[in-house]
Amino acid sequence: MTSPQAEAVIDLDAYRANIAALAACAPGAELLAVVKAEAYGHGMLPCAKAAREAGASWLGVATVEEALALRAGGDTGNVLCWLASPGADYDAAIDADIEVTASSAEQLAEILTTAAPTSMRPKVQLKVDTGLSRNGAFGEQWTQLVAAAASAQSAGTVEITGVWSHFACADEPDHPANDAQEQAFRTAVDELAAAGVAPALRHLSNSAATMTRPSAHFDLVRVGIASYGINPDRTMEHDVELTPVMTLQGRLAAVKRVPAGTSVSYGQTWSTDRETTLGLVPLGYADGIPRNATNRSEAAFGGERVPVVGTICMDQIIVDLGDLSAQRGDLVTVFGPGTSGEPTADDWAIAAGTIAYEVVCRLSSRVERTYRGER
Ligand SMILES: Cc1ncc(COP(=O)(O)O)c(C=O)c1O
Prior knowledge:
The chain is of the alpha/beta class and about 375 residues long.
């Protein structure tokens, strides 16, 4: 088998170990592994399978389509999805025993209408907006959703299985919004219970709250970024041992020795100040390398840091290898766990003025994912 010229190597042993470490933070709760957006760029189906192997009793995705793709890929466990505009394929979701989220009475009505002709009773979780102002019912909308859910439950047309919300600032554990959101969530759950609806699953915590806020673990925690070995915020302190799961690497497509004063790449934004060796790595912004990290990032070659020089192109980047001996086909690591001298996804995020979530998620489908530790 020929080796790919560029690949993201996904370490499933690390992924399973991260999930186990996160589950240990919340021993009284179930764990939902968030595998939306192709498992944050790591590949949804292999990660979903590994998450189950690591004991995740739930998988979470944004869209109905993603949830259906999990079923098509053979997953038969609990799946929750949470983002749907009118016209979503609830029918298929309900038939596939996927749990859907209602963020308003109107959305609950749409789910129930769609479900009516099918044989299965829809399993619906209710989302309350406790301060993120994204999805979820807010204020009077919540009161309406509670009433609608109570009446559908009495009519036997729905099974309300969960109630949940999402933090805005959990990656800043001391932020006052966290206490306020947790309190708002408790109030919302009480309001629901007072209407006679007491679902078994109450959940609020993402990775950051799973690691730092036991009071918000409730019945289930939803872990995304930390399961991929990335700290939710680069400054956030915790004592959970996480290992980055993705290593992005490419094989040199060209190597050349050039004199001092040679300009490199579009716009001639960088020039050599000495005779040096340039290496061409077949990864560019079409693969997800952030172009605005131009002249600000590094890679690793043979365990040594080398600067990425000149404007980042659509399909390629150039590294300044100095006097290192290099040949076409040699491996350059763009980012990885950081344990062998290579930068991390977060180093690239700093260079690009973004967060590591975006660095891994934006990796395009052209980059082959190869898996280590498959069972
Ligand atoms: C609803 C929901 N829950 C949980 C998560 C996981 O968050 P994190 O990746 O910070 O753990 C996400 C991700 O954005 C989300 O949208």
